[in-house]
Amino acid sequence: MLHLLYILAFTVLAFIAVGNLIRNLIMFSFDRERPYPVRSSAGNQGSFGYYAAKKQSIPHPELLDSAGNLIKEPLLVMRSINVEDARQKLDALYESSPGQKIERSEEA
């Protein structure tokens, strides 16, 4: 009987939690679309709202070089290789792993 009470209590709590999660997601989506007014009072002249600061387009510090200029070249360059080269590299990595040496000594 006590088990059924626990199952019922946790089921009710799960439904409340899922309902709360859905309600919060809906409210956050509405809140994101709502524009916030920029306050400019006498004591608060330098501060802007979140969306006003976002519209100014300040680049991330990792996108700037040491002089502060915006980097134009790509940050990640990938070299394409064929499947056989990738298999050979993975096999070499597997053969050099510490666990592989232990397994070979047990087989002998």
TrEMBL record:
Record keywords: Membrane, Transmembrane, Transmembrane helix
TM regions (residue ranges): 6-26
Alphabetized Pfam families for the sequence: DUF2973
Species this protein is from: Nostoc azollae (strain 0708)
Protein's UniProt name: DUF2973 domain-containing protein
Lineage, top ranks: Bacteria, Bacillati, Cyanobacteriota, Cyanophyceae, Nostocales
